[in-house]
């Protein structure tokens, strides 16, 4: 997954980050799936809560999407201030017992999104606005975020917690959304777009075991179709590796093969229009994380494109969605010269990102020591971990703290 390139003029923010020594894999590491949006209408039991946006108080329903475990809250459409790119504070309440919450923001094509601020449970700030002046901004919030978040174009998810740090999410939460676009001169411009914000909350302890559904979305790359895939030796081997990796933490992987009408060659560039178009092609798949297999995934550079093994639609990706802008992961099936086949590890690695895992540490850079994740048991620099920044054929280990993030994911179902 390592991106190596000749540095020249920087045409995109991603490239500029590489030039600065911040690896695009931070973003790269970030992409995932295909699905239609969650039903906006509450289903099953609902409990009324108070919420308000733009200064108006309204009754909002916390919709139960998975009985007793996962709840969904639609905060509606929110306008960003074109002068600052920021929304007004938007408040919502989460019930006692909330174990984790994911805030998803969706906006127009080309608008990059992240949370500018998040105050939890009427208490401390989980995200402080000063992060935008930080060294990894706007790609990644490190110092200003109790729990790390990565920006994405068109659709972004911020998750708390994604590390074993104390947090109280119950009670009043308040967020401010931030959006921007890139000018042709690679300058960040505040966006005045209207965005939609939803919240998914898990109100139960992490599962000790569970089932994770994935859809392997076939673009026709390699001549592989949904009908052929189950008996395709390389695909079968990759699926076996994915199952082996997650079985080690008692997560059973359920696989569905789906044909999609999408490009087989995609670029990873500043606005990721190829990627979002790819992910949107997966709206018809069943509930599960969409894993798109393409022939090639290339980082757009000023020089020759750089081959990438995979990309996730977020860290984490959109919750229980298919067909939205960042709903999926993409993995290239083209074997690079002299490289072993790591397709199964690459798929599992991107799923790891999609469920909320960052690299154990980012690659060395001229900026200083590599940026490490917020977990204490991931063995920084050890290439045996699934989330090693450049996954190898043997990069299969998921640590206890990484497993805790996965077991808390809204994607995990009772087995
Ligand atoms: Zn990665």
Topology summary:
Layout: H1 13-20, H2 25-28, E1 46-53, E2 56-66, E3 70-79, E4 90-94, E5 100-106, E6 112-119, E7 125-127, E8 140-141, E9 149-150, E10 152-153, E11 155-160, E12 171-182, E13 188-190, E14 194-202, E15 210-218, H3 233-247, E16 251-259, E17 265-268, H4 273-280, E18 289-294, E19 296-299, E20 306-308, E21 310-312, E22 329-332, H5 343-354, H6 400-407
Parallel strand pairs: 15-16, 15-18, 17-19, 18-22
Antiparallel strand pairs: 1-2, 1-4, 2-3, 3-14, 4-12, 5-11, 5-14, 6-7, 6-10, 6-12, 8-9, 12-13, 19-20, 21-22
Q: In summary, what is this structure?
A:
This protein is of the alpha+beta class and 415 residues long.
What does this structure look like?
With 415 residues, the chain is α+β, with helices and mostly antiparallel strands. It has two domains: 13-17 and 24-36 and 208-407, Collagenase (Catalytic Domain), CATH 3.40.390.10; 46-202, Jelly Rolls (Sandwich), CATH 2.60.120. It is built from six helices and 22 strands. It has helices at 13-20, 25-28, 233-247, 273-280, 343-354, 400-407; strands spanning 46-53, 56-66, 70-79, 90-94, 100-106, 112-119, 125-127, 140-141, 149-150, 152-153, 155-160, 171-182, 188-190, 194-202, 210-218, 251-259, 265-268, 289-294, 296-299, 306-308, 310-312, 329-332. Strands 1, 2, 3, 4, 5, 6, 7, 10, 11, 12, 13 and 14 form a twelve-stranded antiparallel beta sheet that branches. The protein has a five-stranded mixed beta sheet with strand order 16-15-18-22-21, with helices on both faces. A three-stranded mixed beta sheet has the order 17-19-20. A hairpin with a 5-residue loop joins strand 12 (171-182) and strand 13. Helix 3 (233-247) packs across helix 5 (343-354). It binds zinc ion. The site of zinc ion has 6 residues, from helix 5.
């Amino acid at each position: 997954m390592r991106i190596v390139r000749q540095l020249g003029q920087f045409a995109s923010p991603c490239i500029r980050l590489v030039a600065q020594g911040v690896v695009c894999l931070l973003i790269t590491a970030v992409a995932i799936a295909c699905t239609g949006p969650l039903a906006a209408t509450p289903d099953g039991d609902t409990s009324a809560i108070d919420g308000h946006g733009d200064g108006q108080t309204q009754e909002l329903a916390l919709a139960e999407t998975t009985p007793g475990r996962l709840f969904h809250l639609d905060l509606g459409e929110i306008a960003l201030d074109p002068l600052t790119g920021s929304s007004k504070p938007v408040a919502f309440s989460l019930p006692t017992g909330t174990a984790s919450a994911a805030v998803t923001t969706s906006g127009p094509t080309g608008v990059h999104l992240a949370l500018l601020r998040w105050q939890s449970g009427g208490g401390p700030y989980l995200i402080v606005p000063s992060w935008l002046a930080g060294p990894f901004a706007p790609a990644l919030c490190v110092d200003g975020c109790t729990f790390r978040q990565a920006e994405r174009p068109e659709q972004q998810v911020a998750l708390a917690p994604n590390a074993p740090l104390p947090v109280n999410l119950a009670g009043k939460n308040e967020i401010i959304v931030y959006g921007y676009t890139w000018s042709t001169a690679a300058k960040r411009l505040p966006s005045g777009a209207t965005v939609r914000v939803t919240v998914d909350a898990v109100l139960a302890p992490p599962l000790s075991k569970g089932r994770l559904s994935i859809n392997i979305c076939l673009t026709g790359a390699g001549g592989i179709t949904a009908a052929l895939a189950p008996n395709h030796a390389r695909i079968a081997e990759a699926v076996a590796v994915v199952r082996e990796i997650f079985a080690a933490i008692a997560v059973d992987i359920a696989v569905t093969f789906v044909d999609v009408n999408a490009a087989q060659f995609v670029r990873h560039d500043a606005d990721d229009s190829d990627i979002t178009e790819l992910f949107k092609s997966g709206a018809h798949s069943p509930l599960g994380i969409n894993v798109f297999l393409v022939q090639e995934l290339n980082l757009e550079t000023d020089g020759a494109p750089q081959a990438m093994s995979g990309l996730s639609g977020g860290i984490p990706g959109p919750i229980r969605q298919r067909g939205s802008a960042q709903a999926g992961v993409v993995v290239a099936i083209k074997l690079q010269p002299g490289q072993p086949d790591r397709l199964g590890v690459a798929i599992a690695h991107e799923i790891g990102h999609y469920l909320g895992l960052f690299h154990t540490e980012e690659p060395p850079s001229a900026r200083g020591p590599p940026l490490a994740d917020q977990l204490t048991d991931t063995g920084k620099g050890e290439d045996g971990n699934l989330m090693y920044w450049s996954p190898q054929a043997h990069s299969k280990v998921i640590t206890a703290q990484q497993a805790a993030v996965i077991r808390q994911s809204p994607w995990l179902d009772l087995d």
